[in-house]
Each structure stands twice: as structure tokens, then as C-alpha cells.
Amino acid sequence: MTQNLDSKKKTTTIDARGPRFGAVITTVVLATALATNNLWVIAAQAFVFAIGAIKGPQFTPYAFIYKKIVKPRLKGETPIEDVRPPQFAQSVGLLFALTAIVGITTGINTIFIVAVAFALAAAFLNAAFNFCLGCEIYLLLLRARSK
User: With the C-alpha atoms ordered 4, 127, 45, 119, is the resulting torsion angle positive or negative?
Assistant: First the structure.
């Protein structure tokens, strides 16, 4: 995942540690949304996911914090990865956040809980174990499409 998937096209690469840092913040935000059943918390996270899905994860507020505060303190080589898998993962997160918003605004709390819990589980996997579930789904879809 940390290498370009298609050498024929020029693709954007990002610091592979940035999305993991973003996943840490996302985990905290989603856990807060789940614990409080707060529409505004999940709406704020949906906004962050939308930026990441449309412009790329390197343009989110979490990436800004990473670039300005965390990255200058890191040593060693910068691992890079293709931006497309994390951007797809942001799209999946946005889908779950929008589903949660629909659930809470329609009064169907179960939809809210399940959608936020799934997004939280995926964010936690990335934050704790550096396993980006959305990125892996992207790669599986890419392999399936090329067959």
C-alpha cells in the first residue's frame, strides 16, 4: 500500500504517517459522538471526511495539525503512499457519517449507533494497528477491476 499502484499514471503521494495520525483524532471524535449521541459531533466529522474524500486526506484539518505540529518532530525517512486508498477510505467514512446523521435526524438511534460504531472500528484499526480497512477495500476493488 505504500507504493504507487499504477506506474503508468503520475499519482500524488502523501506521508503515510499522516492518515494514521488523523485516524487517532477521528477515533476520539467518533467515540465522543457515540458516547454523547451528538449530531454536531458527527456532523463535524462528516465535514472532515468530506474534505478528505473530495480534496484528499492531506487537506483535512487533522493533516494540518500533523504537518504543523507532529511532522517537524519526527526523524528518519518519510514513508510515502499513494493518496488514492486513503482518499477512498475517507469516502467510506463519509458514507458512514452521513448514514449516522440520517439515523439521528430521523430518530432511528440504532442506525446512528451502528454507523458510528463501524466507522469507529475502522478508525481504531488504523490508529492502533496501522491497518486501514478502507485502503484495503480500495486495493481489493482495484484488483477485482483489473481481472
Answer: positive
Question: Taking the model in full, what pTM does it have?
Answer: 0.91
pLDDT tens track for 99-118: 999 999 999 999 999 999 99
Match 502523501 to its residue by C-alpha cell. 14
Which residue type does 7 have?
Answer: S
Of residues 97, 120, 21, 33, the one with CA closest to residue 64 = 21
- Which of 76, 92, 75, 78 has its CA nearest to residue 126? 92
Distance CA 21, CA 139 (A): 21
Question: What does the DSSP assignment read for 80-98?
Answer: EEESHHHHHHHHHHHHHHH
Closest by alpha carbon to 90, among 5, 23, 9, 11? 23
What phi, psi does 44 have (nearest 5°)?
-65, -40
